[in-house]
Automatic annotation (TrEMBL):
This is Plant PDR ABC transporter associated. One of its GO terms (cellular component) is plasma membrane. The lineage of its organism: Eukaryota, Viridiplantae, Streptophyta, Embryophyta, Tracheophyta. It is found in: Membrane. Residues 39-122 form the ABC-2 type transporter transmembrane domain. Keywords: Membrane, Transmembrane, Transmembrane helix, Transport. The chain crosses the membrane at residues 42-60, 72-92, 104-123, 149-172. It comes from Musa troglodytarum (fe'i banana).
Length: 180
């Protein structure tokens, strides 16, 4: 996974470095603000990726804790994976979901991850698309994503990790599936 990340970032940074050299020569800014600005997006990306892996790990642990064996836990998990994928807001964006299903969008942990990843990386881009609208306008109109909601999204992703960890701890303490 690390090799994939390193390989995928190289062409992007190579292009951005050329732009940076031009803007530095024009006296727009120095190297430190540029590096910090790039690191900001990277840390948001790293945050959402890490906590998503964490809540999926805790979710797997929780399903094993709540069910009598691994086979049932795998069946329950796979059912939720399909539902989460459907309601993540990527296949069907929230504004296009039927009103009576939108509550599940907000209850779906993957929707918060998609919201956080997309908004943290593209939510402050004001460049125009071929359609004439900016990236920010597209994200708000099509997906319903707002960059100023990023803090709430981060709290929710951490909350899902904590919720699944807590449910696992309670299940291990309270439920006993041993037969004697």
């Amino acid at each position: 996974m690390g090799c994939t990340y390193a390989s995928s970032v190289q062409p992007v940074v190579a292009v951005e470095r050329t732009v940076f050299y031009r803007e530095r020569a024009a006296g727009m800014y120095s190297a430190l603000p540029y590096a910090v600005g790039q690191a900001d997006k990277f840390f948001w990306y790293l945050f959402f990726l890490s906590f998503t892996m964490l809540y999926f790990t805790y979710y797997g642990m929780m399903t094993v804790g709540l069910t009598p064996n691994y086979n049932i836990a795998a069946i329950v998990s796979s059912a939720f994976y399909g539902i989460w994928n459907l309601f993540a807001g990527f296949v069907i964006p929230r504004p296009r979901m039927a009103v009576w299903w939108r509550w599940y969008y907000w209850a779906c942990p993957v929707s918060w991850t998609v919201y956080g990843l997309v908004t943290s990386q593209f939510g402050d881009v004001h460049e125009r698309l071929d359609s004439g609208e900016t990236v920010v306008e597209f994200l708000e109109d099509f997906f319903g994503f707002r960059h100023d909601f990023l803090g709430v999204v981060a709290v929710m992703v951490v909350g899902f990790a904590a919720l699944f960890a807590f449910q696992f701890a309670v299940a291990i303490k309270a439920l006993n599936f041993q037969r004697r």
